[in-house]
Design goal:
By secondary structure, the protein is an alpha+beta fold. The chain is built from eight helices and ten strands. A six-stranded antiparallel beta sheet has the order 1-2-6-5-4-3, with helices on both faces. The protein has a four-stranded mixed beta sheet with strand order 7-10-8-9. A hairpin with an 8-residue loop joins strand 1 and strand 2. About 10% of the residues have low confidence.
């Protein structure tokens, strides 16, 4: 069964921390599942509002302090997708042996009702339409090996700090091995609240001074969507100031260097940082008329940290864009 933290205690304990992300290799998880070594993955945790089904183990975990989430409130053909924003936790549980999908689902259904969640949509098997295919086809849900016996519920909880949205998808493991026939739970929880502002605007004159004294400028005002190379709209003001710097000094050429923290794989972060740097140079050329020959995009991933990756504050400092005089 599931014990639920009282809502008042939960909101009183909320800590609005900056971006925190954990991602774990599929190969390592596959080993855990195939060997029966069902320990929680490192760095994972239950959500304080909706804990686990008794005897379940966390086999995948991600969290993001602010992102968009496609909340399913029905079949796609009926317009059943609502985009919500906020702090997101994605937790994949493997249920204990000899517990059916329906039993686990009913426990979650009862626990969410006890916590005060309003059911937005609930379905089973063919009633769910495209929802199982949508969930199970996503790379982050690769551990949900469905066998057709699936249940889904989405809900909303109104609270003093903002709304909380939940998505619960439960299916039966059909992969074989020791995990076969166990219930798999995909629990996604979005705490909708205003985005924490970490924008630090650096004027062209300050950038020019930093280049003259140290040869580089550290910028935190260029923001990207979580785990993507898509520039967020609020980055434009800082990119425009880089363009001003370059227009004021036509002889200046620069490297645009992308940096990441240590979360995730090294090769992946190297590629992500290069793609992010390229999006900045593309915006400078496309939107501000800066000659491409004056811009070189470089990605160094987590290879040049300015702080420890052991803390979130340190990881936040390591995620940055730098301008280097060429």
């Amino acid at each position: 069964m599931i014990e639920v933290l009282p809502l008042g205690q939960y909101f009183a304990a909320l800590n609005f921390t900056p971006l925190r992300r954990f991602s774990f290799a599929a190969a390592a998880l596959a080993v855990l599942l195939s060997t029966g070594a069902f320990a929680d993955v490192p760095g994972s945790a239950d959500h304080p509002l909706v804990p686990r089904y008794e005897g379940a183990q966390i086999v995948r975990y991600e969290s993001d302090a602010y992102t968009e989430y496609d909340l399913r409130t029905g079949k796609a053909k009926d317009g059943g997708v609502s985009v919500v924003e906020g702090k997101l936790a994605r937790i994949t549980y493997q249920g204990p042996a000899e517990r059916s999908v329906l039993e686990v689902f009913r426990n979650y259904e009862a626990a969410l009702g006890k916590a005060g969640f309003q059911v937005l949509f609930s379905c089973a098997r063919e009633e769910c339409g495209d929802i199982p295919n949508d969930i199970e086809s996503g790379p982050r849900y690769m551990l949900l090996w469905g066998a057709g016996d699936h249940h889904f519920l989405s809900g909303k909880l109104s609270g003093p700090q903002g709304n909380v949205y939940v998505s619960v998808y439960i299916t039966r493991n059909n992969s074989g091995g020791p995990a076969r026939d166990r219930a798999m739970v995909q629990l996604d929880i979005v705490e909708a609240r205003p985005m924490e502002s970490r924008m630090v605007f650096v004027e062209a004159s300050a950038m020019q001074q930093d280049l003259a004294t140290g040869g580089r400028v550290v910028l935190y005002g260029i923001q990207f969507d979580f785990d993507k190379d898509t520039l967020r709209p609020e980055s434009e003001v800082q990119i425009a100031e880089i363009a001003k710097l370059l227009n004021d000094d036509p002889a200046l050429s620069v490297l645009v260097v992308g940096h990441t923290d240590m979360s995730g794989g090294f090769d992946y972060n190297m590629d992500l940082s290069k793609r992010r740097a390229s999006r900045v140079t593309e915006a400078l050329a496309r939107d501000h008329g800066i000659a491409g020959a004056r811009l070189t995009s470089v990605g160094v991933g987590p290879a040049a940290p300015v702080a420890s990756n052991e803390s979130e504050d340190g990881r936040a400092l390591n995620r940055r864009v730098e301008i280097v005089k060429r």
